[in-house]
C-alpha cells in the first residue's frame, strides 16, 4: 500500500470572513500556525510529504495543489491528478483537529482487517455537515446517512479507483457506492477530535493545542522582573517587559511585545507582531497577528482579528446568562458557567473605555 496524504484546506471563508478576509477558514493563525497545519504537520512527519489542496499556495514544506471549482469533490479530483504511483489517498479535512495517533489507527485498522480502505468515525456531537455512519457485519461501512450514534470524522483512507470516480457523484454518494463492492472499514475514534466549523469553536481549540512544555527562544528579551510560569512558548524576538506575568498554558508569538505589569494567562495566544499594552489582562483568547491591545484592557474568551486595535481600557464581558450551542461549560470553584466574550474583526478599532457585552460580534 502506497499512501498519498492529502489535506483539504480550501473553500470559502463563510462565517470566518471577519477573521480571514477572502482566505478559507483553515488559514486562521493560532499558535503561530494556520489551522490546516495542525493536520498537515503530523501527516508530513509520518509520510515525509503531504499535499495541500488550496486556492492560496504558500511557502512551506508541503506540496500545494491548486483548488479548482467549488466543493470537496473538485478538491479531491484536483489532488488525484497530481499523484504518482500511490495506490491510496489519505484524505483529511483541514478544519478538523484530531490527535495525530488517529492517522496511524486508520492505516493500521485498514491493514489489520484486510479492508480496501477505511474511514474514521467519531461519536455524534453537535456538529453540522457530517454524515451519520451506518455499519454492517465486521464493522464495515454500510452507508453514510440515516441515523447513527457515529459520524464521519473527516479522515479517510481510500483506494485510488474510488477517488477517480469522485466527480460522478457527491463524496458521500461515492463512499456509499464503493461500500457495495469493496470492504471499507470503519475505525472508531474516541480520542481528541474537534471540528472548527464556527468561529467560537476556536476557543475550545485553544485548549487542545495548548503548549505541553515551556520553550523560550534564545533571542527574546524578557525582563528579570517578569514571571514565566509554564507551560509557555515564547517565540523569537518577543519582548516581555518589567513585572509582566505569563502563566501558562500560553503562547507568545514572534516579535510580540507584552507591556509592564500585564497578565497573560490560561490559554491566551498572542500571535506574531501583536502588542499588549501595560497593565492589561488576557485570558483564554486569541490575539491576532499585528493586533494591538491598549493599556489596562481586559480580554477574556475572545478573538481579536489581525491588525485590530483596542484602545486603552477596553473590557470584554464573557459570562452568558444561558448556555449556547457548541460551547463547553466552564467550572469555576464548583459552579458552572458558559463563557463567550467578543469577536473583534480584523482591522477593527474599538474606542478607549468601551465595555463589550458577552457574545458581542459572533453573529
Summarize the helices and strands and which ones pair or pack.
Layout lengths: L2 E6 L8 H4 L8 E2 L2 E2 L2 H11 L3 E4 L8 E4 L5 H9 L7 E6 L2 E3 L2 H13 L3 E7 L9 E4 L3 E5 L5 E10 H4 L7 H11 L2 E5 L4 E3 L5 H8 L6 E2 L4 E2 L4 E3 L2 E3 L4 E2 L4 E3 L2 E3 L4 E2 L4 E3 L2 E3 L4 E2 L4 E3 L2 E2 L4 E2 L4 E3 L2 E2 L4 E2 L4 E2 L13 E3 L2 E3 L5 E2 L4 E2 L4 E2 L7
Parallel strand pairs: 1-4, 1-6, 4-5, 8-12, 14-17, 15-18, 16-19, 17-20, 18-21, 19-22, 20-23, 21-24, 22-25, 23-26, 24-27, 25-28, 26-29, 27-30, 29-34, 30-35, 31-36
Antiparallel strand pairs: 2-3, 6-11, 7-13, 8-11, 9-10, 32-33
What does this structure look like?
This protein has two domains: 3-197, Spore Coat Polysaccharide Biosynthesis Protein SpsA, Chain A (Alpha-Beta Complex), CATH 3.90.550; 208-356, UDP N-Acetylglucosamine Acyltransferase, domain 1. The termini are far apart. It has seven helices and 36 strands. With 363 residues, the protein is an alpha/beta fold. A hairpin with a 3-residue loop joins strand 9 and strand 10 (140-144).
List low-pLDDT spans: none
CATH class of the largest domain: Alpha Beta
What overall form do the CA principal axes indicate?
elongated
What is the overall number of helices? 7
Please name the CATH topology of the largest domain.
Answer: Spore Coat Polysaccharide Biosynthesis Protein SpsA, Chain A
Query: What is the number of strand segments?
Result: 36
The main β sheet shows up as: 7 strands, mixed
How many distinct domains?
A: 2
- The overall pLDDT, averaged over residues, is 92
What's the Cα radius of gyration? Answer: 22 Å
Helix content: 10-25%
Structural class: alpha/beta
Taking strands numbered 1, 2, ... along the chain, how are they ordered across the largest sheet?
A: 5-4-1-6-11-8-12
Percentage of residues in DSSP E strands: 25-35%
Query: What is the CATH superfamily label of the largest domain?
Result: Spore Coat Polysaccharide Biosynthesis Protein SpsA, Chain A
